[in-house]
Amino acid sequence: MDPEENESESTYGATTVSYGHMPEVEASSLGSTFDIPELHFRVPRDKYHLVYLALLLAGVGFLLPYNSFITDVDYLHARYPGTSIVFDMSLTYILVAFGAVLVNNSLIETFGTHTRITLGYGLAFVSLVFIAIFDIWLEVFDKDTSYVMNLLAVSVVAFGCTVQQSSFYGYTSMLPPRYTQAAMTGESAAGLLVSINRILTKALVQDKRANTVIFFCLSIFFVAACFISHQLVKRSKFVRHHLAACVSARSPDGVDGAFGEVRLEILDSEPKEALTESPGTASDDGQEEVEGSRQKSLRVRLKQTRSIRRGLLVRWQVAKQIWTYMLAIGSAYFITLCLFPGIESEVTNCTLGDWMPIVLMAIFNLFDFIGKITAAAPVEWEGGWLALASSIRVLLVPLMMMCAAPRDSPILQGPGWSMFISLLLGLTNGYFGSVPMILAPREVEDEQKEITGNIMMLSYSLGLTAGSGLAYGLKAILGHELTYDPCAAANTTFYNSTIFH
């Protein structure tokens, strides 16, 4: 069939797909206005795995900006000595991110998916450019102002990237499960890329300010590349087909469908003439018009209230189906944020010096990446067992603490211990942070998959927030930073010990 003859029809291979009408707001989320498949069709293929690779880059794009702020930990410690800058950045990001997830669950009814994703990329790009130029390169701010500006930049990145991240998981929930795994693998790839970026820039350029500027410039380039790849892939037949299939599953009332969205009716303001008497019009007629307007307004408000209640009910019903997966992902990130990046940045070693936290973060990011790749293995977890296995990781918290406390002579001496524990933390975070997100959408109907992704993101954010808050308590257990040089031979022999002793 010639697509020029009928724009509402397209062909996948040898099979023609006919589309019916789709509301414009959904069409905008799909990239352009097009309609819903109603007849038989053959599912388009992801040729050359380009959609998979694009979603891998998407995962890179929404965590790379934040990782860029915390991975230059050597620069942060030199610029703000004696402060809790890494902890503050982590908590700031998590708190704003939690609020952003709540906002995104509202924006889902107002703005299209791709609009929210583009917003995230834009805010991240502007924040990275601002800090790289004005704070690091030109140093236009004093120390205290710079501290605040960095936290503000992290806040902007947190809001934009979390709206983007939550939108992507709602987006990928409507695609086959491996594409959710692609986005989550991209998250870990972001950390790994940033760690490699920092190691190379620090090793090749000795000046700390210069290598940090180059480090940020490379991060900005990666964000731009991720944005371009998204703009290209959202127009693919594969993506458009799967999103349209979920949209077509909506119910007649429009509430259970559209992924449980709550759509408030738009109120058209009454013309002034309807509320104002014109010459020659009886006052009774005017009164009737006013009363009619009030009744209409009341009916619309009642309709809005019922829509909100139905939307909340849909979310509650979905949560009851996936609560074990919510618990699994929440506990996974709670335990991780207790230790990373805060406590890991407090582990010291004289041989490695300011390389120590960079190495630990690189190990975590590498094995987090491996863990997320492993999550693609076809292992069917029952929700309860998955939540239990994820929670057992809490044993890593006291082990890592023993690598840092007491500060002058840690219980687990030698850098090998902290490296091994960081390895386990990253590997298990990658696996148990991905599997619940992959499996949860299988528990619900197609029309509820996007809202499932957003609810899982809410659980993810709750875990991050609680873990980041507890990290301050763990830092308090470590006590204040030492006022003397722990690397001096007269003070301790630990810092020059062998790898495990």
UniProtKB/TrEMBL annotation:
<dbReference type="GO" id="GO:0005886">
    <property type="term" value="C:plasma membrane"/>
</dbReference>
<feature type="transmembrane region" description="Helical">
    <location>
        <begin position="50"/>
        <end position="70"/>
    </location>
</feature>
<feature type="transmembrane region" description="Helical">
    <location>
        <begin position="212"/>
        <end position="233"/>
    </location>
</feature>
<dbReference type="GO" id="GO:0005337">
    <property type="term" value="F:nucleoside transmembrane transporter activity"/>
</dbReference>
<feature type="transmembrane region" description="Helical">
    <location>
        <begin position="451"/>
        <end position="474"/>
    </location>
</feature>
<feature type="region of interest" description="Disordered">
    <location>
        <begin position="271"/>
        <end position="296"/>
    </location>
</feature>
<keyword id="KW-1133">Transmembrane helix</keyword>
<dbReference type="InterPro" id="IPR036259">
    <property type="entry name" value="MFS_trans_sf"/>
</dbReference>
<keyword id="KW-0472">Membrane</keyword>
<dbReference type="GO" id="GO:0008504">
    <property type="term" value="F:monoamine transmembrane transporter activity"/>
</dbReference>
<keyword id="KW-0813">Transport</keyword>
<feature type="transmembrane region" description="Helical">
    <location>
        <begin position="150"/>
        <end position="170"/>
    </location>
</feature>
<keyword id="KW-0812">Transmembrane</keyword>
<protein>
    <submittedName>
        <fullName>SLC29A4 protein</fullName>
    </submittedName>
</protein>
<dbReference type="InterPro" id="IPR002259">
    <property type="entry name" value="Eqnu_transpt"/>
</dbReference>
<feature type="transmembrane region" description="Helical">
    <location>
        <begin position="417"/>
        <end position="439"/>
    </location>
</feature>
<feature type="transmembrane region" description="Helical">
    <location>
        <begin position="90"/>
        <end position="107"/>
    </location>
</feature>
<feature type="transmembrane region" description="Helical">
    <location>
        <begin position="355"/>
        <end position="373"/>
    </location>
</feature>
<dbReference type="Pfam" id="PF01733">
    <property type="entry name" value="Nucleoside_tran"/>
</dbReference>
<comment type="similarity">
    <text>Belongs to the SLC29A/ENT transporter (TC 2.A.57) family.</text>
</comment>
<feature type="transmembrane region" description="Helical">
    <location>
        <begin position="119"/>
        <end position="138"/>
    </location>
</feature>
<feature type="transmembrane region" description="Helical">
    <location>
        <begin position="322"/>
        <end position="343"/>
    </location>
</feature>
<feature type="transmembrane region" description="Helical">
    <location>
        <begin position="385"/>
        <end position="405"/>
    </location>
</feature>
